[in-house]
Each structure stands twice: as structure tokens, then as C-alpha cells.
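Input set for joint prediction.
Command: fold jointly, output C-alpha cells.
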Amino acid sequence: MATFSSMKKRRYFRRNALIAAPSFSMGVALFTIVVVVLGFRALLPEPFLRATAPLLAVGTALSGFFADLRAQFADTSLLRRERDDLMREKDSLARENLAFVAKIEDLTQFLGKEPAPPLGIIAGILTRPPESPYDTLVIAAGATSGVSPGMRVLAPGGTPLGFVETAFTSIARVTLYSAPGQSLSAWVGRERVAMTLKGKGGGAFTALVPKDAGVVLGDLVYVAGGGALPVGRVREVGTDLSSPIATLSITPLVNLFSLTWVTLVP
Amino acid sequence: MGHARPVVRVVLIAAALIAPFFFTIGITSFIALIAAAASPSAPLAVGIIVDALYWTKAAYPYPLGTFAGALLTAAAFMVHSFIETRIMRV
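C-alpha cells >
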């Protein structure tokens, strides 16, 4: 067959006799990478986390950048209305807070000085959901800062989030209470109906309460810790005619996807 | 994709391997799915890296990323073998 200079030249890559096909080489390379990563993580967990921490921090920053970019294309009138509603709610809450502070001061004067709240350790978040597919956080504070396994992790405002599962020298891993398999004692509504919160993942919880407990949509859910701390709000009340139990779906008050720092307390 | 230029395949697979560090799990899964066209083992590798980075026993009973990656890899191998068989027949 005649060949012309305008015809595209084919390139043939030299192949090893042992590794016959390129796809097999790619599989071997992937297998090697996976074994190295797993070995690093299993044998040297802290150096692994420290090595990946800068990459995780970049990923979290990228996530915030894309969220801002998406907001550019959002309906501005809707955003403006949402902002105005939030500003009004914030002003109302600030006034309510002032009233509560005054009440606490009066009670303290009447009953005596209350003990100072324990100081906490403030830690920046390196990675959080949705970068992390599980309900875990990696924070930039470890044993050298006084972090130890079992410490409680609070969001800004004092909302309980989870607990420290593993603490390395300068990094710690936190499991959130909303992780599947986790449970937490709580109360719901003005009647403070006792229940157990079960983690559902993605920051959400479920709970079972008696159907006649009077729990309605929008009721606040509280957990113990220096009084009653609100952690979520009832989003759905699922009932079954044949069962005396109602299933609550609870959304968190804290937006996990935008957390940047947490406080750790004993 | 087995006949695509090696550079394209390497770039796709490299993007899938570094995606768990920089992107959300949704975007990472999407990139892993595309990389499966370049190498069927890519989703399993990505799943294992996601679990190495983020999974703990307290957070989830089993490493979901590895299982999901293994399922996608098995599906990718089936699709690859089907496509290669069809090409042979043609």
C-alpha cells in the first residue's frame, strides 16, 4: 500500500514481555499506590495525617470557593429576602439573649456566684463534610495543645457536635454525634420529652417518641451540658396508625458544611 | 478507552486519585466513574484512598468507600470485557 507524508503516523510502544497489556500495567501501578497509601495509614497514622493535612486544608478552601461561585448565580432577590429574614431573626434573638443575660445576673445575685465555665481549646478544621463522606472532622490541634480522646467538641455558640476519637501530636480526628451508630440522650419540645438521638449521617438525627407526647414540627431538640443546649429542630414527624411510636427526623441547627473552627472541652 | 492515548489515561487516573483530597465525595465519585473508562481498577483505588483519609469505625460500621469502589470496579470490568468482545466480533 502506498504511503503518503500527509498520512498520520502510528506510534507503537515497546511492551515488556512480562507485562503484556498497558491496562495490566495501569492496574499494577494502581495496586502499588493503594498498598503504599494503606501501609502508610496503618503503620504511621500520624505522619499520614500530617502529610495530607495541607492537601485537606486546600480542599476545604476550594469547597468554600465553589460555594461562593454558586452563590453568584443564585437568584439575588431570593438571597436578599433570605438575608433580611435572617437579620430580623438575629435582632430578635439578640434582644432575647439580653433578657436572658439579665435574668441570669439576677438569679446569680440571688443564689450566689456560679462556677466559671471550663476553658476550651479552639481548633481549626482541616476537613469536614462534604469533603469527608463520613461524619468526621480532622482538626488542627492535638496532644501538644491538650487534646485527648473523649473530649467533647462544640460548635461556635456551644452546640455539641461530637467527640475526639483519636488525638495525635498536632492533629485529631473527631467523630460527630450524627454519625450512623452514634446515640445521644436528648429532650424535645417545651415539655422536654426524653428520647435518644440516633445518628443518621450528614448531620441529621432520628429519634423515637410516644405518639401522644405532643411533639410537633419545628420543636427544638436539646442535649445536656451546662443547662439545655439546643442541637436541632424537628423536621418531620412520622407516624403509623398501628404503632404508638412516632419517628422524628431532626435537622441540626449548626451548618456542618460551613464550620471553620470548633472548641474542645473536657 | 483502552486504545486512547496513554497521556489521557494517566491524566484521568491521576485526577481520580487526587480528587478525594480536594473535592466533595460527589465530585470524587463522578471523576472515579470517568476514570473507570481508563482503568477499571480506578474506582476501587479511589474508594480505598477515601477510606484511608476519612473512615473510622466509630463513624461508620464498615468502609463504605472501599465497598462502593469494588462494586464500580466489578461493573467496569464487565463493561470492558463486553466492549472488547464486541470489537473482536466486528
